[in-house]
Write a structure and sequence with these properties.
Layout: H1 6-11, H2 19-32, E1 39-40, E2 48-49
Antiparallel strand pairs: 1-2
């Protein structure tokens, strides 16, 4: 995804995860995740499940 802009991304101080880090994160998610979950994968951080807020929907008056 970063081909052609990797140096630009790094020059702006943004971290990029290497393929081995992403692969390890995917293994963790497959082992520990469940259907319907979303996880974040960021360079230098452990994979983390996303917590979605509970939204109360109003009913018609």
């Amino acid at each position: 995804m970063l081909e052609g802009i990797r140096e630009h991304v790094l020059a702006h101080g943004l971290a990029t995860a290497d393929p081995d880090e992403v692969a390890a994160a995917v293994q963790t998610i497959v082992r520990n995740g469940a259907t319907g979950e979303a996880w974040t994968v960021q360079a230098g951080q452990p994979p983390t499940p996303v917590t979605f807020p509970t939204i109360e929907l109003s009913r018609g008056a």
